[in-house]
Write a structure and sequence with these properties.
Blueprint (H helix, E strand, L loop, with lengths): L4 E7 L7 E5 L5 E7 L2 H8 L6 E8 L6 E11 L8
Parallel strand pairs: 3-5
Antiparallel strand pairs: 1-2, 1-4, 2-3, 4-5
């Protein structure tokens, strides 16, 4: 696992629970496809595009650039739910 980092939501969670985020300040893109629990999945599902969220990510299997959100804390949203 990594330390929590800031990410901007660039694609809201779709019907397959995939959310695309961009890391600060590196501008790397991550596809979050798994979640530590339902609470983490629900927090990410509530985030609109443009929201900034602190997440701790780990690799999801062997596939390239797919990740599991181990923890999720909302830092700033543009209309979504805020809080921890």
């Amino acid at each position: 696992m990594s330390e929590p980092n800031a990410y901007t939501v660039i694609s809201e969670q779709n019907d397959h629970d995939c959310t695309t985020v961009r890391a600060h300040p590196r501008n790397e893109t991550y596809h979050v496809v798994e979640y530590a629990d339902e609470d983490a999945r629900d927090r990410v599902a509530d985030l609109p595009v443009g929201s900034v969220v602190k997440m701790e990510l780990s690799r999801a299997g062997r596939r390239s650039n797919v990740w599991r959100a181990e923890s999720v804390r909302t830092a700033h949203t543009d209309g979504g739910v805020t809080g921890e």
